[in-house]
Design a protein that fits this description.
One of its GO terms (molecular function) is hydrolase activity. With 165 residues, the chain is α/β, with parallel strands linked by helices. Helix content is 31%, strand content 21%. The chain is built from five helices and seven strands, in the order αββαβαβββαβα. The protein is globular and about 45 Å long.
Length: 165
């Protein structure tokens, strides 16, 4: 998602916040799950082997950390993630990543509906400018805030990474 053709984005410090949370989780011995989008549509930036389908070096999984490959926006759909979490009695989840109004929102909604206790670190997520249904441009920051508002209370508690650290 670092490709310039993805468009203008918000929250330029998100990767630093994700890295800080990742470091804290690892230091505390907490389980970490990495999600990778692998598209089944040739030409997609998420097609296997493309840069968009790879983890950023600073956020790459370590040996022993669980990796979920997803093929749609929701990381729970046909991935085995729910089963993996239940096997380990993991009920509380913290979400970070990209993009807020797509994969993050879809996955958090599913997790909330499945009964998980969800937190979303707002400053550790980001999205991109995108037009609305009428073709009117909408800023990444507005889309980010609306997606988080959609999640707050009903599916998750939205917080800042400092609250989690």
């Amino acid at each position: 998602m670092a490709e310039p053709k993805a468009g203008a984005r918000n929250n330029r410090q998100a990767e630093d916040r994700i890295a800080a949370l990742l470091q804290a989780w690892r230091a505390a011995g907490r389980p970490v799950v990495h999600v990778r989008h692998l598209s089944r549509s040739p030409g997609s930036p998420f097609w296997p082997g493309q840069r968009g389908a790879e983890f950023q070096d600073a956020l790459a999984p370590l040996a022993g950390e669980h990796v979920v490959d997803k093929h749609v926006t929701d990381a729970f759909a046909h991935s085995g993630l729910e089963h993996w979490l239940h096997q380990r009695s993991i009920r509380q989840l913290v979400f970070v990543g990209v993009s807020t109004n797509m994969s993050v929102e879809a996955t958090v909604r599913s997790a909330g509906c499945l009964g998980f206790d969800c937190r979303v670190a707002a400053d550790a997520c980001y999205t991109f400018d995108r037009p609305d249904l009428d073709g009117q441009p909408r800023s990444a920051e507005d889309l980010h805030r609306v997606a988080l508002a959609n999640l707050q209370g009903e599916y998750a508690q939205v917080c800042q990474s400092a609250d989690l650290l």
